Amino acid sequence: MEIILQPDAESASRLAARLIARLVREKPDAVLGLATGGTPLLVYRELIRLHREEGLDFSRVTTFNLDEYIGLAPEHPQSYHAYMREHLFRHLNIPPENTHLPEGLAADVPKECEAYEQAIRAAGGIDLQLLGIGADGHIGFNEPTSSLASRTRIKTLARRTVEDNARFFDGDASKVPRHCITMGIGTILEARRVVLLAFGKSKALAIAETVEGPVSANVPASVLQHHPVAKLFLDEEAGAELRRADYYRWIYANKPAWQQDA
After folding, report:
1. 67 among known catalytic residues
2. Helices (DSSP H) in the chain: which residue ranges?
3. What does the domain layout of the chain look like in residue ranges?
4. Which of 117, 136, 164, 209 is catalytic?
5. Which of 171, 174, 176, 207 is 20 to 30 A from 79 in CA distance terms?
6. In the annotation, is 138 catalytic?
7. Among the options 51, 81, 138, 227, which is catalytic?
């Protein structure tokens, strides 16, 4: 696990976007795992800029999103289908047929979950998975106590997650769906690289527990300690509770030149 502390969210997001861009340039048919919410927006804006101004080509890229609310149609403005169209896909030259999200209106949810797993396998697996983190340490919608070996499945959202996501539903928690389809933790761990973003003081405790605490299903993101190539891009506020912050800064500043991929 590599901890990359930056002064602010903008700096951290630019570095994360540069890492993704390098992968796409080196492997034009890369498979990207994508996330939603407020955290990855700066990364997506930078990828759009790189596409428009520097010709970053997404024409052969395939994407799989982490999750989708159950009960929301793709056209619903708060669905993750709509989020991805608005904030990324419509701005890039990625073919629509190459973009994948769970189907929130699936008649048979377990069947949809298995089909999603099969589609990831058929694409050759995920090369890089982008993640945010909840204030309780969840990744995707894998709430605390989720199995660390879990696969794509239905999950009931925790009360805190519902309350946190109410800001996307006019501040009304009653409008937030209570169930979702999410990639499991085991699914996420199979990605060849993982990039986790965390910004703001509300994420500081979760980051400290993820990085320096024990691996525990009570803090699902802590399982990334076992991933061979996990990079955490943090602003100073999100890293404020890290006891070894100076060590992480030193290591990043003194990496050999051939490791300077972010």
Report:
1. yes
2. 9-26, 41-54, 80-87, 109-122, 159-165, 185-189, 204-212, 245-253
3. 2-254
4. 136
5. 207
6. yes
7. 138
